[in-house]
Amino acid sequence: MTVTVRRLTPADAPAYRAARLAALHADPAAFLTNTAEFAALGDEALAARLAPDAAGVTLGAFGGRELVGLLTLVREAAPPLAHRVNVYGVSVAPQVRGQGVGAALVAAGVELARSWVGVTSLHLAVMDSQPAALRLYERAGFRVWGTRPDAVRRDGSVHAEHWLSLDLTVP
């Protein structure tokens, strides 16, 4: 599969809504937001998330014309933390998993974060219910620096959360 990764714009809001809802439905334990919460967001709110002046940058992976993956980067705003960028909302559509979409998204996110002046590290969290995602990040160079037990309770299940970082000062 040929994958193209680019920054999403407000014009991509309908495709973003569909891809994010599909991800929340396919892997509810992977995310803190649930489908009902996300579905309640209006079109204007979604477009604002994808605007050039938004707090975060959302990358979309396209297989042909179809949006099949998402990754959001958010730089810390407080000056003492501005060297850090957090990775959120990563998803790959089930029908294209194992075809390099996740790797392409993570590589594009790392490349973008490296281009931001003063950024030295990327940070993310992965639920213990997502071993494939953990392996993806570790292949990209992220390392687990801690695990929070009893991090999330949902639908009678208790999940730990693995915290990872990537040192961007190392080539």
The CATH class turns out to be: Alpha Beta
CATH superfamily: Gcn5-related N-acetyltransferase (GNAT)
Strand order of the largest sheet: 1-2-3-4-5-7-6
Number of domains: 1
Uncertain residue ranges? none
In terms of structural class, how would the helical and strand content be classed? alpha+beta
What would the average pLDDT be, to the nearest integer? 95
From the N-terminal CA to the C-terminal CA, the straight-line distance is: 28 Å
- The count of β-strands is 7
Second CATH tier, the architecture: 3-Layer(aba) Sandwich
Which percent range describes the beta-strand content?
35-45%
> What level of helicity do the residues show?
25-40%
Main sheet characteristics: 7 strands, mixed
Domain N-acetyltransferase: 3-167
InterPro entries: Acyl_CoA_acyltransferase (IPR016181), Bact_Acetyltransf (IPR050832), GNAT_dom (IPR000182)
Protein name: GNAT family N-acetyltransferase
Organism: Deinococcus aquaticus
